[in-house]
Amino acid sequence: MEEINLDEADLRLLDLLQHDASRSNQALAELAHLSPPTSLRRVKRLRAMGVIEREVAVLQPDRLASLLGHGLTALVEITLERQGAEQLDAFEARAVPEPAVQQCYRVSPGPDFVLVVFCPDMPAYLALAQRLFTSDANVRNIKAFFSVKRAKFDPRVPLPLPPAR
User: Fold this and answer.
1) Which region, left, alpha or beta, applies to residue 50 given φ > 0 means left and ψ of -120 to 50 means alpha?
2) Distance of CA 68 to the CA centre of its chain
3) Taking the chain (165 residues) in consecutive chunks of 10 residues, what is each chunk's mean pLDDT?
4) Is the peptide bond before 111 cis (omega within 30 degrees of 0)?
5) Residue 78 and residue 139 share a domain
6) Between helices 25-32 and 36-48, what is the axis angle to 10°?
7) pTM, entire model
């Protein structure tokens, strides 16, 4: 992996994009105290370096509930029987492509994986559990925690920004 060097202007741009990536380049440049061509060039460079992975719309599930239902969010701890690199990679390769798996973390100590899962209902969760957990002979333990309320969700990465001038 190449070394990434970011200066204060890059960090400002990243912070602004994390708050609202829908801004025009003109507005972004103005807020970052850069010229529009400089802003555009830097954002393109940040994308090319992979610092900006992708830009997405963050949806508010409660606003969509009348259309889609509330669904259920589960935090699922998975412990494997054997934790060799091959077994860990194999479980991860099965979990990551699942659309219901929003996040997948290898963790230590404790369980081997923690998944954040969103399913439309309990039957959909049970089908996912059958595909990912029950059918895998190497899965030793599953512990699921079902969310009753989302108090905070923020995908931003905290950045070391200097104080505002």
Assistant:
1) left
2) 21
3) 86 96 97 97 96 92 87 96 95 96 96 97 96 92 95 91 71
4) no
5) yes
6) 100
7) 0.84
The CA radius of gyration of the chain, in Å to the nearest whole number, is 20
Contacts (Cβ under 8 Å, ≥6 apart) of 59: none
pLDDT at 123: 97
How many helices (H) and strands (E) would you count in the chain? 6, 4
pLDDT of residue 66: 86
Same domain, 128 and 76: yes
Structurally, the chain folds into a number of domains equal to 2
Q: Cα(6)–Cα(142) distance, rounded to whole angstroms?
A: 41
DSSP 51: S
Q: Could you tell me if 137 and 73 lie in one domain?
A: yes
- Does 117 lie in the same domain as 72? yes
Is residue 49 within 8 Å of 39, Cβ to Cβ? no
What domain range includes position 42? 8-48
Q: What is the pLDDT of residue 62?
A: 85
Q: Is residue 157 part of a domain?
A: no
